Amino acid sequence: MSLTNQIIATVIAVILGLAVSTLYILSDSSRNTLVTQLESHAEDGATHLGLYLAPYMQQGDVATVETAVNAIFDSGFYQQIDVLDASGDPMYRKEYTSETPIQAPAWFMHLIDITPPTKTRQIAYSWQQVGSIHIRSRAGYAYEQLWEGVRNALVLSAILSLLAALLLSGLLRILLSPLRGVEHQAMALARREYIEQPKLPKTRELRRVVTAMNLMVRQVENMFNEQNRNIESLRAAAYRDSLTGLNNRRATLTQLNEHLEYRQDFGPASLIILRLIDLQGLNKSLGEDATNHLIQTSAKLLDELGKQLGFHVTGRLGGAELVLLARRRTRDQWQQTLEPLIEQIDALFHQLEHTPSETRIVCLGISSQDNHDSTETLVSQARMAADDAEQEKRPIAFFSQHKAQRGWSEQWQEHVANAISNGQIFLQQQTLVGQDNVPVHAEVFARILNQENEPCNAGEFLGVARDLDLLPLIDRLVIERALTYLRQSDTNLSLSVNLANQTLSQKEFVDWLLRVLEQSPARSRLSIEVNETAILTRLDAIQSLRNSLKALDVTFGVDNFGTHPNGFSYLYALKPDYLKIDGSLVRQLDSSDEDSFFVSSLISVAHSLEIRAYAEHVEREAQRGKLIEMKIDGTQGYLHGQPCALGSDSDH
Fold this sequence. Notes:
Layout: H1 3-59, H2 62-73, E1 78-85, E2 90-95, H3 106-111, E3 118-125, E4 128-137, H4 139-175, H5 177-190, H6 204-239, H7 249-263, E5 269-276, H8 279-286, H9 288-309, E6 312-318, E7 321-327, H10 331-353, E8 362-368, H11 375-391, E9 396-398, H12 401-405, H13 410-421, E10 426-434, E11 439-449, E12 455-456, H14 458-467, H15 471-488, E13 494-499, H16 501-504, H17 507-519, E14 526-531, H18 532-537, H19 539-551, E15 555-561, H20 571-574, E16 578-581, H21 593-608, E17 612-615, H22 621-629, E18 634-636, E19 644-645
Parallel strand pairs: 8-9, 11-13, 13-14, 14-15, 15-16, 16-17, 17-18
Antiparallel strand pairs: 1-2, 1-4, 3-4, 5-7, 5-8, 6-7, 10-11, 10-18, 10-19, 11-12
Helix pairs in contact: 1-2, 1-4, 5-6, 6-21, 8-9, 9-10
């Protein structure tokens, strides 16, 4: 019961108590008054009857006695009247024998005792005793009169109490409205939402409470903002290059390994190394500050180019060497894309040098991935191409010209398109395991058969599907088959599906997804995951999707969490059910203090928001042991088994 209702109930109880006490006192006083009135009526009746009947009683005129007694008896005040002669024998008796019940409740008459008074008067005439008259008053008259008064008082008290309750309720709700605001603030604070009451109440005590609550909200908000700043500072120190703001060498190589060797989500990729020629000479001719400005601008232009190209990784390998990883393009496409970048950097150099020199100070080396080349191989090839460009005084050089020009073969594109359009995909699963080694859910992956009827990994066909705008169709097929499996399977294991950024950009897909989930009885066992980059790209749309999924009791998670440079402040608004820490942060967890501290901080942030934290790409028991020490909620990776066909058990 709310405080307002408790106060109202207490006040009404007090009012009713006072009313009942008052009624009891009044009823007791009224009873005494009525008894006195009956006694007076009995005495008056006996006196008047005696004076009137004295001569008739001497004469023994019973008829006149009867007439007189009947006349006075009809007033209703009397229960019984007895007229006796001089010898004490009855001359006439009149008794109230009405069959009409007393108009008062039995409990009321039992509660209030009324003893009717009795009066006797000796009658004398001509100095001679002629008889006596006995009159007993009727108690029913007193009960009826008393009950009528009490009943009217009760009705009036009830009406007044109801009016008082309504008036009091309105006044209390107005006076205590600041407390509802404080309650709303407290509930919002539990959800990590910081709301202040701008209007302070006039009541002194309530003003103090609201002021204290506003102060606490500000302090908690500052505490969490400080925590975020500390984690961001740690991220910057451990993973960001202090000069350019891009990934530093360690983070760049980790990200390249993650995408090229583990996820293989780029498909065939191109790696570009941008190098400023003769850094030492630039420092001498331009000065350190101007050279640093040149490097910063080059990094910014390269990162902006990466954003235009879509999915990418940028970083600084050291000195004046920057790197960009993007999806593979032909030589002509790269020439057309990179020439404006080179011209901008050269123009800035000439502006800083204050000379019209035509000297080029930037060269680019490009290597393209084929047959799943390792990160080390790809970086080495790009450096060799950059060396060739520098020696030959060319702006761009390709490590392997025929590879750089080669894109998807028409046969492979046709094969992938036909397989997806015909629904010839199958699902694999990889289990996410909790701290107690109990499966939490299984993430499902789409796969197709290659031209030799052998399963191919994601990197071999998702790039083609992305270029052909077929990712939404793949995600539709995955959702439909996952829901079918959950509906038909007798297992309690839930499934998670990761939706592509390209898919989420289509409103018709989102509408279809919500409609299908609403109609599926198995939706509560399905989790929808979205990449962190996709969330930050269209936060408002993802927020709307998350709210719709929550209303349908569908779990929502953030994938590849913790690597985006924009941080994770979006968690406070999005409130996902869980997040998966990116595998690049977990790879060296058991050997890197920076990774260990940063991942521990991410877990703490998630838990402070009541969000479950999982870790991806866990391959060693040492990694999992470290994560369990950090209170991770679950782990996923080759340690628990490689992906296997949906419905089969993976090896542990």
